[in-house]
Specification:
Length: 370
């Protein structure tokens, strides 16, 4: 089978459209006809060289589609099923899955290397073998994934909206509800209100936060945050800190969630300073792997019982939480429709990322043609 895919050959260069050969599904594998793919900032980190992957690599890790075929031993899905791709696989039996932490499943160790379990490379082309971002490569018409990355959903759910729950929605929502453990009546600050931050806003309000302060330098994103449930929207971290103290009679925010495009020591320090005693900072944003972006007073953390912690995939369990969030969408308790700012064909993928960098999109979505 042939597929057209958007491939990164070298960091710092635009993606190339390449025709590739797709091998049939092997043991435990699933052939997917991708219908939609979200333009997430994590792929941009690879394009810009912040995250290192084995190249060439078909990008795209947020997506949905239809199962075309399955290999021997597959039990989670069947041909014809509609699925959302989970950017972290969940084997179900490693230590982390067995203790309810599918977001750090051991199978996620190789997602930036691009091959499937057993070092299988289903994609090949002019440069030889091609990897797939997060073992998915959703910037392709077709792909072969492991069944542990496939989450079956109801056929009547719109696949363009469902695609977003494979990464951004779940990551942001879970950062508030699970990682920050937002409680009713708390004041929460969210730094960065793009495709992840807006869902942290939604999660915080759903959990009962009385004040949700959105911080973003882009006016359009501040306005969007208010539409998605923020009670206040400001441009800078200094404004957020002072507003939180004013709203809480000097106490400060209970929780701060960092979902900016690229982590810096400045935004981490802003969040740490804005929380009050016993407050929690949750780091969701990424940056260069070896760059130190936490420069804080350990003494202050000790004396005021402040906590700073990381969160991957919103500390969610995708096999349970992806269907759960889509259930909230069906009930009208989770906004997904308004997240999609623009749609693109695959040949416009670089334009989509230019628009993301320019701050013009909440979420861009590729609509695949077959």
């Amino acid at each position: 089978m042939k597929t057209t895919a958007a491939v990164i050959h070298e960091a710092g260069k635009p993606l190339d459209l390449v025709e590739l050969d797709v091998a049939g599904p092997g043991e435990g594998e699933v052939l997917v006809r991708y219908t939609h793919a979200g333009l997430c900032h994590s792929d941009l980190h690879v394009m810009q060289g912040d995250l290192a992957g084995w190249l060439p690599l078909v990008l795209g890790h947020e997506g949905s589609g239809v199962v075309e075929d399955v290999g021997p031993g597959v039990t989670r899905v069947s041909p014809g099923d509609h699925i959302v791709c989970s950017f972290i696989p969940s084997c179900g039996h490693c230590h982390w899955c067995a203790t309810g932490q599918q977001a750090i499943c051991d199978m996620g160790e190789n997602i930036m290397r691009g091959f499937l379990p057993g070092q299988r490379w289903p994609l090949s082309g002019p440069a030889g073998r091609y990897g797939a971002m997060c073992m998915l490569g959703t910037f392709s018409q077709y792909g072969v994934i492991h069944e542990t990355s496939a989450v079956r959903i109801d056929d009547d759910l719109p696949l363009d909206k469902a695609a977003l729950v494979g990464c951004g929605v779940t990551t942001g929502w879970g950062a508030a509800v699970n990682a920050a453990d937002v409680r009713a009546g708390e004041t929460v600050i969210v730094y960065g209100t793009g495709g992840i931050g807006l869902n942290a806003v939604q999660g915080a309000r759903h959990a009962g936060a009385v004040h949700v302060i959105a911080v973003d330098p882009v006016a359009g994103k501040r306005q969007a945050a208010l539409q998605f449930g923020a009670t206040h929207a400001v441009r800078t971290g200094d404004e957020a800190r002072e507003l939180a103290r004013s709203l809480t009679r000097g106490v400060g925010a209970a929780k701060a969630i960092v979902t900016v495009g690229k982590t810096t020591s400045e935004v981490v320090s802003d969040a740490f300073d804005a929380i009050g005693k016993a407050g929690v900072v949750v780091l969701v944003a990424l940056g260069e792997f070896d760059t130190r972006t936490i420069e804080l007073s350990g003494t202050q953390a000790t004396l005021w019982k402040k906590t700073i912690r990381g969160s991957l995939f919103g500390d969610c369990n995708p096999t349970a939480d992806i269907p759960r969030l889509l259930g909230l969408y069906r009930l009208g308790d989770l906004q997904l429709d308004g997240l999609i700012t623009r749609t693109y064909t695959l040949d416009k993928v670089n334009q989509g990322y230019d628009d993301l960098i320019a701050g013009e999109n909440l979420r861009g979505v590729i609509v695949h043609e077959h």
